[in-house]
């Protein structure tokens, strides 16, 4: 974080040079705020820094311009980057880079041009790029995005407050109760913080042929969730249902996906959603309770019995807290859920959304809340 702190100081200096009042305490608040926001979301970082620096409304235009100059891959002309510290880097200007995990200063290689420089813009474009258009060169970056999204989902806070030994809200009642043991002296204050609310999720993935362009990424996301959230169950279905959690190896996601393709019967074949959901309700219904979110990822193109599909969805709805259906076809604005299977399922779905890119998966965080 030292590089980010240095860059924040320069950003604060640029704001002061343009008439925005920023103090040292504001810089400290900004440095503390960055780990709390999604650094892959440029708009969220902008809002977080604007709040942390306490920028008045009349200065928002200036702040936004300076933010774009400092955090968009270029540095404002008014605040030049200092010369490199290492003699071998003399004569090569340093630039701020995003390496997928942190922002840092680096000297660009002589042969590289600005056309392929990584930054917020490329990450943001990748978040909204449809899975069926991801190139082989982008696979690793996409998997890192999915893993970070899973971590964000696992770290969400509930409204429930629990005792903590760290900094948090002061719990006066417990503080006074403690003071009884020391004749009324408040030696230390009891504190509380919002508990980490681990969701209970059942994921049902359509692995039929029509879902091929999306299956790899959805299952990579499922395995990333399984790695950080204990109460996650994963199933694959097409013409039959398969519980797939046993093939998951946390350090070998790609190998897990390859094993899964060989173990799931009729992979990339047809699909009978109703029969598979009925089998799930009968054989695994005990995994679903009133605190469970059931996530179904399918295009709804069913070759089976639509009445059985509606009956199975009705049974799932009665058992679960929420049912989410992600349909990658919904990413196309021209799409309408006119397929018979989709029409049969929708009356029993709480949240119906696209599932064609990372941005659509981020909605799961809100729906799980």
Overview of the molecule:
- This protein is of the alpha/beta class.
- It folds into three domains: 2-116, no CATH class; 157-196, no CATH class; 200-368, von Willebrand factor, type A domain (Rossmann fold, 3-Layer(aba) Sandwich), CATH 3.40.50.
- It has helices at residues 2-17, 24-33, 42-52, 60-71, 120-127, 139-154, 172-179, 212-228, 253-263, 273-284, 306-319, 340-345, 358-368; strands at 95-98, 103-106, 157-164, 169-170, 191-196, 200-206, 232-237, 241-243, 292-297, 322-326, 351-353.
- A six-stranded mixed β-sheet has the order 8-7-6-9-10-11, with helices on both faces. Strands 3-5-4 form a three-stranded antiparallel β-sheet.
- Helix 11 (306-319) links the parallel strand 9 (292-297) and strand 10 (322-326).
- Helix 6 (139-154) packs across helix 8 (212-228).
- The longest helix is centred in the middle third of the chain and has 17 residues, at 212-228.
- It starts with a helix and ends with a helix.
């Amino acid at each position: 974080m030292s590089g980010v702190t240095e860059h924040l100081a320069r950003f604060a200096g640029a704001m002061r040079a343009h008439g925005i009042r920023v103090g040292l305490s504001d810089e400290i608040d900004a440095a503390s705020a960055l780990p709390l926001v999604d650094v892959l979301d440029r708009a969220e970082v902008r809002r977080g820094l604007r709040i942390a620096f306490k920028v008045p409304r009349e200065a928002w235009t200036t702040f936004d311009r300076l933010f774009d100059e400092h955090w968009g891959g270029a540095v404002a002309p008014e605040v030049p980057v200092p010369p490199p510290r290492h003699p071998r880097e003399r004569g090569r200007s340093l630039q701020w880079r995003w390496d997928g995990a942190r922002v840092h200063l680096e000297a660009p290689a002589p042969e590289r041009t600005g056309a392929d420089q990584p930054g917020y813009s490329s990450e943001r474009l990748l978040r909204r790029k449809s899975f069926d258009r991801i190139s082989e060169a982008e696979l690793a970056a996409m998997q890192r995005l999915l893993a970070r999204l899973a971590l964000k989902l696992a770290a969400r806070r509930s409204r429930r407050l629990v005792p903590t030994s760290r900094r948090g809200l002061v719990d006066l009642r417990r503080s006074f109760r403690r003071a009884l043991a020391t004749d009324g002296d408040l030696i230390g204050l009891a504190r509380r913080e919002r508990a980490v609310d681990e969701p209970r999720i059942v994921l049902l993935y359509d692995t039929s042929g029509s879902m091929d362009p999306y299956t790899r990424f959805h299952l990579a996301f499922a395995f990333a969730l399984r790695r950080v959230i204990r109460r996650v169950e994963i199933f694959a279905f097409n013409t039959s249902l398969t519980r797939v959690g046993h093939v998951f190896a946390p350090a070998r996601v790609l190998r897990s996906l390859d094993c899964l393709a060989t173990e799931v019967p009729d992979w990339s074949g047809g699909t009978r959603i109703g029969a598979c959901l009925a089998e799930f309700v009968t054989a695994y219904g005990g995994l679903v309770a009133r605190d469970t979110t059931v996530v179904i990822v399918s295009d709804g193109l069913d070759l089976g019995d639509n009445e059985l599909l509606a009956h199975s969805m009705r049974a799932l709805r009665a058992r679960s807290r929420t049912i989410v259906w992600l349909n990658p076809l919904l990413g196309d604005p021209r799409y309408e859920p006119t397929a018979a299977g989709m029409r049969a399922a929708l009356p029993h779905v709480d949240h119906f959304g696209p599932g064609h890119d990372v941005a659509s998966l981020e909605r799961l965080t809100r729906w799980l809340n």
